[in-house]
Amino acid sequence: MQKPQRMAALGACRYILGETLREILEQRHCDGAQTRFTRAARLSPQTRKMLQLIKKTLYSATRTVACATTFGLFLGVAIAGSVGTPTASAQTPDPAASDSQSSSQTKQPVAAPGTVAVTQATAAALAPYTGPKYDNRWEVYGGLLFMNDQAGQNTPVRFNMGGGEAMGTYWLTRHLGLAADARFGAGTTPVISPFYNRVLVMQTIGMGGIQYRGPKNRYAAVDLHVLGGGAYGDYSYAVTHYPGGSPVSACAADQGVGQQGNLGLYCNHIGAYGVAGGSIDFNESAKLAIRIQPDLVFEHLGTELREYFAISMGVVYRIGKR
User: Fold this and answer.
1) Facing residues of 205 across strands?
2) Does domain 138-319 have CATH number 3.40.50.280?
C-alpha cells in the first residue's frame, strides 16, 4: 500500500474512533452528571487536574491502539490478497494449455530424425508371435508325392513313382476332422521282354477318411489319418503308343492275334487302395505351415493285399474359423 493511502486510512480511523468515544462519554455524562459533578466538587483542584491528565492520556492511548489495530487489519488483508492471487491463478488450469495437451495427444506420433514413426499396423506386426489358435474350420494341403508299387502280379521288382497330392480337411472339432485326398503318380517299371526295357505306369488315386489332430504348439502340430478308397492303374500306355503297333500286350487278357506274348503287367483296372499315416506341420504363420506326410499304403490291385510306402511334402493353408 502506498504512503498517501496509508495516511488517509489512519486519519479516517482516528476520526471514527474519536466520534465513537465522544458519544459514549456524552451518554454517560447525561446518565450520571449529577453524581459525577457532586463527587468532583468534593475533590481538590490538584486532584482534579491529575484525573483530567490521566483521562486525556488514556483517551489518547486508546485511540492510538485502536487506529494501529485497524491499520494492521487493513494492511494484512491487502498483503494476503496480493499474495493469494498468484497462487490461485497457478492452481487454476489454463484452458488453452489443456486444449493444447489434448490436441497433442490425438496427433500422430512424430518420429525422431532419421527414423520412421511406429504406426498401429507396425506395432501389431512387431508384437510377439503367439502361433496359430488351431480353431480353423477348413484346411487345404498340396504337395509333391513319392511312392512305390508293383506293376504286375509276377514282376520281379517294385518301381517308384513321383507325382502330387491334394488333401482337404473339414474340422468338426478341435481334434477330429473329415478328409478327402487325391493323388497321382507316374513312373517306369522294368519288364522282361526283347522289345521293352522299361514301360510307363500311372496311378490315379482317390480316398476319404478321418483325420485326428494330436499334440500341437506354436511351432508344430502332429496329425494322424486313416484314408480308404480306390486306385486306377494305367499299365498299357507304352504298349498303346508303340509305333506301328506293339508286338506284345501289357497283360495276358489283352493279348491279341499276332502278338508275341505279354509284359506280365496288370491290366488297366480299379482296385482297393488305402493308407494309414500321419503328418507334421511346421508353422510359418497362423494360417500357413509346411507339412511332411509319410504313409503306409495298402493296395489290392492283384490277387492279394500288398503294402507299400508313400511320402509327400508341401504346404498347408488354414481357412475360416470354427
Assistant:
1) 183, 231
2) no
